[in-house]
Specification:
It is a single chain. This protein is of the alpha+beta class. It folds into 4 domains: about 190 residues, no CATH class; about 30 residues; about 120 residues, CBS-domain, CATH 3.10.580.10; about 90 residues, Uridine Diphospho-n-acetylenolpyruvylglucosamine Reductase, domain 3 (2-Layer Sandwich). It is built from 19 helices and 12 strands. The strands form 3 sheets. Strands 8-9-12-11-10 form a 5-stranded antiparallel β-sheet, with helices on one face. It has a 4-stranded mixed β-sheet with strand order 1-7-6-5. Strands 2-3-4 form a 3-stranded mixed β-sheet. Strand 5, helix 15 and strand 6 form a beta-alpha-beta unit. The radius of gyration is 40 Å and the shape is elongated. The protein starts with a helix and ends with a helix. The relative contact order is 0.06.
């Protein structure tokens, strides 16, 4: 017997057994059950749909653009779609908000009703002798509670946590359906964004600038410190990256060799003296001055002189081998100078003060050392800037900058435009050039002169005299 025949046979038998009113009730019950089933399925679908948009929202905000760029560069179509989303973050965030709103409204409209029907039928079938009003109230409370729990747990918390833990995978997963949703509802999304822009305009907020996903310098420095504390960065890595942040703020005056420390050659010096000076100083390049150091006329390279000496040539003069000097000002940013020296293939620059006189000298090596630290060769005698004697006592090289010395001290010394080096600070504290053994208390330290020449202070001792409470206040 085929299926139509079976159905016809059952219909005839049921018609013979049951009255017409009973058949109508059975048909109505079947219809109600089917309707409740579809509505329940639709409610669960709306919960999952809400979870999808919540996961999409948190994922595209959490994921870093660089992570998606890597995926896109591999040629992945999904990665390219994700890149489009990340670069139009405000638009797609509006799309996720629209999706969440529609799903939540639909869930409130369908979910509570179907849950109420299910629990009302359940309470009716239990035959506890409750009144219709009590059953209605209990069904409403249970239905509302259950749909709320489902919405919060499966539609909000779970997808949010998953997206935060796996932002890249989630972003790639939602990219295709989210982009389709965005295209379909683009006019509506544009309208909503326009209305939001009108509302925010009186508050001075420009939404046309887009969503800012870049970190500020302060945030990056905070992340750097967090990386060191967590062990993700070792001391060398931390110091290198920290130097990069400081690099853009430093000027030539902060790192130059001061005029008093420059080794140079007078333009009229005899050949023998020139060679002896190069050997004695051990530098590959030396400035040449005319009578006084304020009149630097060029730079000589040891490699230009060595072939002449080796060949026994006695007919050369400094004017034959001198090279044009490169002059810069004290206030020039060292990152700009580094670019200039590299592009012009120059290793050394003469620093001029505001009056056009020689203030000092700076080399490409000096600039690089600001990033990677002191570069010592086999002939350099390593002299630490600060030698720690105890927690409160330090031996300091007076030629070091205050900025560099502060890296090693528990309490910072002041940095002022009137002086850059510790020697300059000491002269400021004593208001003169002090003698060896003299002491003076200032800025939380006892300054004691340990070594000096007739013109320069070379080494000092710093003893911390400030208490811990004052240190906290000053920091």
């Amino acid at each position: 017997m085929d299926l139509p025949t079976v159905c016809l046979f059952l219909n005839i038998k049921l018609s013979a057994i049951l009255p017409s009113s009973s058949l109508a009730m059975v048909a109505l019950a079947e219809t109600d059950t089917t309707s409740v089933g579809w509505r329940l399925f639709f409610a669960l679908f709306l919960v999952l749909l809400n979870g999808f948009f919540v996961a999409a929202e948190f994922a595209i905000v959490k994921v870093r653009a660089s992570q998606i760029e890597i995926k896109a560069k591999t040629g992945s179509r999904v990665g390219k779609m994700a890149k489009t989303i990340i670069h139009n973050l405000d638009g797609y965030l509006a799309a996720t908000q629209l999706g969440i709103t529609l799903a939540s409204l639909g869930l409130g409209w369908v979910g509570e009703g179907v849950m109420h029907t299910i629990f009302k039928n359940l309470f009716d079938s239990l035959q506890w002798g409750l009144s219709d009003a009590t059953i209605h109230t209990a069904s409403t409370i249970v239905a509302f509670s259950l749909i709320t729990i489902m919405h919060i747990v499966f539609g909000e918390l779970a997808p949010k946590s998953f997206a935060i833990q796996r932002p890249v995978a989630t972003t790639l997963f939602v990219s295709v359906p989210l982009q389709i949703f965005y295209v379909v509802f683009r006019p509506f999304i544009w309208t909503l964004n326009s209305l939001a822009a009108v509302i925010l305009k009186p508050f001075g907020i420009d939404t046309s600038a887009g969503h800012e996903s870049l970190h500020s310098t302060e945030e990056l420095q905070y992340l750097l410190e967090q990386g060191k504390e967590s062990g993700a960065l070792d001391n060398n890595e931390h110091e290198l990256i920290k130097n990069v942040f400081d690099f853009n703020e430093r000027v030539v005056k902060n790192i130059m060799v001061p005029r008093t420390k420059i080794s140079g050659i007078e333009l009229t010096s005899p050949k023998e003296e020139v060679v002896d000076t190069i050997i004695k100083e051990g530098y590959s390049r030396l400035p040449v001055y005319d009578d006084i150091m304020d009149k630097i006329v060029g730079i000589i390279h040891a490699k230009d002189i060595l072939p002449l000496v080796a060949a026994g040539n006695q007919h050369w003069t400094l004017n034959d081998i001198i090279r044009k000097p490169y002059f810069v000002t004290e206030t020039k940013k060292i990152n700009d100078l580094m670019s200039e020296l590299q592009s012009n293939r120059i290793q050394i620059a003469i620093v001029l003060d505001e009056f056009g006189g020689t203030a000092g000298m700076v080399t490409l090596e000096d600039i690089v050392e600001e990033l990677v630290g002191e570069i010592q060769d086999e002939y350099d005698e390593e002299k630490p800037l600060v030698e720690k004697v105890s927690d409160n006592e330090f031996i300091v090289n007076a030629f070091a900058t205050v900025y560099d010395v502060n890296e090693h001290l528990p309490h910072d010394l002041p940095e002022d435009e009137d002086f850059d080096t510790i020697g300059g600070l000491v002269s400021h504290v004593f208001e003169r050039i002090p003698e060896v053994g003299e002491s003076n208390e200032s800025y939380g330290y006892l300054f004691t002169i340990l070594k000096k020449t007739e013109q320069n202070i070379e080494t000092i001792k710093l003893e911390l005299v400030i208490n811990k409470e004052d240190m906290v206040d000053n920091h």
